[in-house]
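Pilot study result, target chain (301 residues):
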Amino acid sequence: MELVNSESISGFRQSMIDRGRLRATVDAYNRDIVNFLTFLTDSDTPHGAIGLETLESFKNWQINKGSRSSSVRRSVIAIRMFFRWLDERGSIHGSPFDDAPVPAHDHCKAREITPDQVQLMIAGSGIQETRLKSLRDTVLIFLLAHEGLKVSELTLLSWTHFFAAGASGRLSIPGDRARTIGLEAETTEAILSYRRALSEDHRTKNQLTGAAPLIVSFKGADARAVQFGITRHGLKFAVYEIGQLANLRQLNAEQLRHAAMEHKLSLGFTPEMLMNHLGLRRIGNIGKHLSAAPSDAPTNV
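Predicted structure:
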């Protein structure tokens, strides 16, 4: 069966439109799949032999034709999504690219976050404009760089999602990848300290209810104004500020999520445990962290 053909490409394109993808994204993904079909034809690759090596060869084929690294990265995303779609509709049994990691952005490769840099951010968060902002930023660092939450998940959290019994905390994460995760002791302690500060601060104590958003935002150069809730845009700039504590320019939450992957693996998490914790359905980018693990890493990783 010819898996990649005009009919399947057209069907994939329509599925992207139905899911609300931007037209520019749909068009770009469509071009990537068409290019992949051209590559398969040029290289005489049988569709039954498509695998991880095929994808590597396709990446090199694009590079030799002068494609930019950002375009190559996008094509890998498009092909993975296309084959997952084929799997979902029953055209194949399992995608051959589930274990293929997405290449990192060029600007991220030279700025992978180390444990020492995370510690610098934690230490630096203690000298922010106000005590409440310091505690809020510390919570953000732990939730992003140790627990691996996504920005979209952070914006949905309210205090009803947090549970603590002594040093053990749990977080019920809402959204498309809803799940309940156990929190590390340091994360739990940071959240409890932050909640105590909210309950004592005259600006927030009267609004601290179970339904109140867990993350607050600040306005003004001296962070004088406080309000419950934060937007994705607000979190973006909060992460920028946190990165400056470790001399990291334009830090983004995805870099911190990858730091969390490394952190959890160093604690002995198995790939399955990590997928459950991060809300992942497929191993995806965890693969590159596993391949980079030291030879004396726990055998269950």
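One observation from the pilot: The two ends are 36 Å apart (CA to CA). A full batch analysis is planned for the follow-on phase.
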